[in-house]
Design brief:
Elements lengths: L1 H4 L17 H12 L3 H11 L2 H10 L13 H11 L7 H14 L3 H12 L8 H12 L12 H14 L2 H17 L13 E4 L3 H8 L6 E6 L3 E8 L2 E6 L10 H10 L4 E10 L10 H9 L4 H7 L2 E11 L2 E2 L5 H10 L8 E3 L2 E3 L6 H17 L4 E6 L9 E8 L6 E4 L2 E3 L11 E8 L4 E8 L5 H12 L2 E5 L2 E4 L4 E5 L2 E4 L7 E4 L2 E5 L11 H10 L1
Parallel strand pairs: 1-11, 6-8
Antiparallel strand pairs: 2-9, 2-10, 3-4, 3-5, 5-6, 6-7, 10-11, 12-18, 13-14, 13-17, 14-15, 16-17, 18-21, 19-20
Helix pairs in contact: 2-4, 2-6, 3-4, 4-7, 5-6, 6-7, 8-9, 8-10, 9-10
The protein binds adenosine monophosphate.
Length: 537
């Protein structure tokens, strides 16, 4: 109890426990408990900006004192607050007022401050998960057994692991107290209790990623890196719950995902890990995350929004199936299990696009394959790629080197388009190959630093083509010389030294972000700036 109360909660984040305590309910309870007029409580609340402070003030200035007050204990506060969530139906609001008033009337001013903040879910006393973890280790796994501070790293790691898997400090504390490290080791993944997400380390590029993620490319899996929301899906027959990376239950917000899971998952029970991405039904391209995040926050009109921005969950891990935990199984086995439990594979639930490097004969070939896979991922409108070690276990809550991300993360550049070429294939009517130039203020010239071919939607490309055709100075077949007018914001992975372009630099994997309507060509980034970024990377 104490371990959740110190963090201002009465239940873990994933257990959506609504205490039903609003500010107006609380001010009524404070007024009732203290006999202080509700308007007077309001004034204090306004002055301090905190109903907890107002409650402390009211207790101090109480017009009435309870004759027989029962001291507040941790158990009483915890049980009373938890019970609030169970009140239902007519009269439940009054019962809540009475319950909170009961606590406040037995509280001293300081206690009232914290009880009220906790009831409202506003309490923050700066105690992080790490502090609670260390405290549990110190209290129950103290090697010296005398309350001295002899806690081994292994003991702290055992508490940490148990918490990353269960996200339930009371459970972890009880196991540590009653059964020590062995007890903690038995705490595993359980249905409808989300596990913390395993996170990726950032690679400096494909080369670095390939070298770092696994001893040899033969055990590397490439996957598209999607720009959406991390989603953990728990399934038990028709019971499906969806959790975010912050362990919030968002099942209600994703009726389309729940329906797809019910239709396609063949296992009796399982826990799946993936990324939910929003799509624009007209262009069939992913929408930017800001747009998709409306679905996570939305509480009303959920079905309409699901039609407007349908979600696709790209699955990339399976943490448990039919009662068996797979956390300690290698990724290749977990993915085999994942493949075995989707039938049919509906649109809204797919395996993440992937490519194993096991068939590459040399490292050079592996790098080639990775480069074209990366370009495809960016082309499809995704964020980059993931490199994963197929032999690695799943480590909840850890940022691990067995999973590395590569994405164009350098500071974007604003660059001018001095030349453009028509694309080949489907987009052959459009100017899809754009030369990019930085500004040289000394000569008032534009100097090329690379060539862009990806990152735009069809609609954006059509607009870019229209804009550029109005700027043509000269034509050489499908290649156009342009007045350097249009400024584009460009992301890229890195800057290389190169003899290909007059600047001496070349952007690797440049990607269109947006047209900078607000910039004149002279406002574009300078060659000097490109040089500085090159030196600094
Ligand atoms: P970042 O947020 O940049 O640290 O990248 C890690 C996040 O990328 C994960 O938490 C996922 O939400 C997301 N992600 C997208 N695609 C994948 C994938 N194929 N495998 C793992 N994580 C992915």
């Amino acid at each position: 109890m104490l371990v959740t109360l110190v963090r201002g909660r009465v239940a873990p984040a994933w257990r959506s426990l609504d205490l039903g305590v609003s500010s107006s309910l609380t001010r009524r309870a404070v007024a009732k408990a203290t006999g202080v007029d509700a308007d007077r409580v309001d004034r204090e609340w306004e002055a301090t900006g905190d109903l907890g402070d107002a409650a402390a003030w009211a207790v101090e200035h109480a017009a009435q004192r309870t004759l027989f007050s029962t001291p507040l204990t941790v158990r009483r506060v915890y049980d009373t607050l938890r019970d609030l969530a169970t009140y239902e139906g007519a009269g439940s609001r009054d019962r809540r007022v009475d319950a909170v008033a009961g606590l406040v009337s037995d509280a001293d001013p300081e206690e009232a401050r914290y009880v009220v903040r906790t009831a409202l879910g506003h309490l923050r006393v700066g105690i992080g998960e790490g502090t609670v973890r260390d405290a549990i280790a110190l209290a129950f796994l103290d090697g010296a057994g005398d309350g001295d501070t002899l806690v081994t790293d292994a003991a702290v790691a055992a508490v940490d692991r148990a918490h990353q898997v269960t996200n339930d400090f009371p459970l972890v504390a009880t196991a540590a107290r009653d059964e020590g490290v062995e007890g903690l080791a038995t705490l595993g993944i359980d249905l409808f209790r989300p596990v913390k997400s395993m996170l990726a380390e950032k690679a400096e590029g494909l080369d670095d990623g390939l070298d770092s993620v696994a001893p040899a490319p033969s055990s590397v899996l490439l996957e598209h890196k999607y720009d959406g929301a991390r989603i953990q899906i728990h399934v038990d027959g028709d019971d499906v719950r969806v959790f975010t990376r912050r362990l919030e239950d968002v099942t209600e917000q994703f009726p389309d995902v729940v329906a797809a899971v019910r239709e396609a998952v063949t296992a009796d029970s399982c826990v799946l890990d993936g990324e939910a991405v929003g799509y624009d039904p007209d262009t069939e391209r992913p929408v930017v995350f800001q747009e998709f995040s409306r679905r996570i926050k939305r509480e009303n009109g959920v079905d309409r929004l699901a039609e407007e921005i349908p979600a696709v969950v790209f699955l990339f891990d399976c943490l448990a199936v039919d009662g068996e935990s797979l956390l300690d199984a290698p990724l290749r086995d977990r993915l085999d299990r994942l493949d075995g439990l989707l039938d049919p594979e509906p649109m809204a639930l797919e395996r993440a696009t992937h490519r194993s490097l096991a068939d590459c004969d040399s490292r050079a070939e592996a790098l080639d394959v990775a480069e074209s896979f990366y370009a495809d991922a960016l082309d499809a409108g995704h964020e980059g790629l993931m490199l994963k070690n197929l032999d690695a276990t799943h480590q909840p809550g850890r940022r691990v080197g067995a999973m590395m991300k590569v994405k164009p993360t350098m500071e974007p550049l604003d660059l001018v388009v001095p030349r453009a070429q028509y694309s080949e294939g489907r987009r052959s009517d459009w100017l899809g190959r754009l030369f990019l130039a930085a500004y040289d203020p000394e000569d008032d010239a534009f100097v090329e630093v690379g060539r862009l071919a990806t990152g735009y939607t069809d609609e954006e490309l059509r607009e870019i083509t229209d804009r550029l055709e109005a700027l043509v100075v000269d034509r050489d077949g499908r290649l156009l010389d342009l007045q350097p007018e249009l400024v584009l914001e460009i992301e890229y992975e890195e800057i290389q030294a190169s003899t290909e372009y007059a600047s001496g630099y070349a952007l690797r994997f440049p990607r269109f972000v947006r047209i900078r309507e607000d910039l004149a060509p002279e406002d574009a980034d300078t060659v000097e700036r490109v040089g500085e970024l090159f030196e600094g990377q």
